[in-house]
Amino acid sequence: MNTKREIVRTQDVKKTYVMGDETVHALSGISLTIDAGEYISIMGPSGSGKSTFFNMVGGLDKPTSGEVYIDEVDIAQLDTYELAWLRCRKIGYIFQTFNLIPVMTALENVTLPMVFAGTDPDEAREKGANLLSLVSLGERLNHKPAQMSGGQQQRVAIARSLANDPAIILADEPTGNLDLKTGRDVIELLTKLKEERGVTIITATHDMKMLDVSDRVVWITDGKISKIQHRDEIDIQVGTINGMEEA
Amino acid sequence: MNHANKRIFDDSSADARRVVLPWRRTIQMCIANVRHRFGRSTLTFICIAVVVAFFASSMSYQFIIDKAMKSDDVHIQAVLEKAGVFTHDKQSLEKQKDQQIWLMTLSAILCLVGITNTILMSVTERFREIGTLKCLGALNEFVVRLFLIESAFIGVIASIIGGLLGCLLAALQVGAAFEFSLLGGTTFLQSFTASLPKAVGLGTVLTLLASLYPTYIASRMKPVDAMRVEV
Which residues neighbour A7 within 8 Å (Cβ) at sequence distance 6 or greater? Predict the structure, then answer.
């Protein structure tokens, strides 16, 4: 990780929505480069364009103007199949609401992205079991989501996000539905993945616990980056972040 | 610059670049869904079963009567005579048949609307699941396949149960209106083989038709839907 390699780059990204007669500028020109192996938190009040930007970085939305490069590929140029492939192989998604498929066991959930990727079933099963051990759920392979606690479900989701060895993990408020302690465990796990596997982690969050571990925090207000803080600047400021702590 | 940017897709073969969903896995997922959501699909299930039962019983009943009329068994002829089957003139019989067809069409349409509505409800309920599948790399066509096969499963099972009940009902009807002796010999069995396949086929086609629009809606859902938090 000595040589920096960029994994996501946005160039003057703008997004406008037309709502009735009004044009809403959700993003008005964001340029940001994220390096491989970074832990980035995107913060901002609701309505700031944070989610829009986050979705764009995750290949879920296309900009109105400007470019988004994921692993040096301009996502605007991709067709449906390539986009699906990108989501399947390059990006692992973690959601606030866990989003495990309710009728599938933990192992089936984890192996699903591998099914889409065309991995051999036996290989997928073995890898899935390993991933579940990695998140310390090795003995719950055959449990259904409903039989697990929120923290456990989120860990299954993390294992699932790693299924195809993605370059990026995109986590949307991953601790939003968890209590303080399980939230901390999840953050710890994400940090561990970043350090051991060199995965880039991008989160959108309100959770101040996240700030401690982030390499950089990107603040978005009114569709623009209002400031970028590096980790060393953050420690001092936790708890006193001026006025941005709402929501 | 853009040519250089396409790099990551070039080093993988065209095949490895596709996302796939093997048929075996599709079927497994559909069966799991039908089994685990049985409560949810009960309404669809009952709706199909009732309509198919209605179809099957009408067809079966007609079949038994037609067969009896052609029979040269003296006793059966006497029973039919007593019930007044032969006194109906041809015109009123035709009219009755027309009415029957009209009733069947009407119930088929009602059933179609009813099933579409219930499936649509269950699809919109599952927006997050569908969004998640898409985030994990599923294509629209995977979603189409999953939902159509799931509906087909429900359609076939419900139709078979409805069809069997309908045929039994027809037999009871015959017994009540005439005499059970009309079902003698192989007639009872034949009434099943004559109407059951048609009724089941019709029920399955109806279910598939009804699930077309909901499936379309499902396949158009976006990956971002997985992030929606409100219910």
Answer: A34, A35, A36, A38, A70, A71, A167, A168, A200
pLDDT in tens, A188-201: 999 999 999 999 99
CB contact under 8 A, B5 and A72: yes
| Closest chain A residue to the Cα of B32, Cα to Cα | A103
Q: Residues of chain A whose pLDDT is less than 70? A: 1-3, 235-247
Task: Answer for the pair A66, A13: CB distance below 8 angstroms, yes or no.
Answer: yes
Does the interface predicted TM-score (ipTM) exceed 0.85? yes
Beta strand A39-43 pairing with A6-19: unpaired
Q: Please judge whether B2 and A77 are an interchain contact, meaning their C-beta atoms are less than 8 angstroms apart.
A: yes
Rounded Cα gap, residues A35 and A71, in angstroms: 10
Chain B within 8 Å of A99 (Cβ-Cβ)?
yes
Which token pair is A207? 């959770």
**Looking at beta carbons, which residues of chain B come within 8 Å of A93?**
132, 135-136, 226
The order of strands in the sheet holding A168-172 is A91-94, A168-172, A200-204, A39-43, A216-221, A224-230
Q: Cα–chain-centroid distance for residue B111?
A: 10
Bridge partners of residue A11, in order along the sequence? A67
B5 vs A60: CB contact, 8 Å cut-off? no
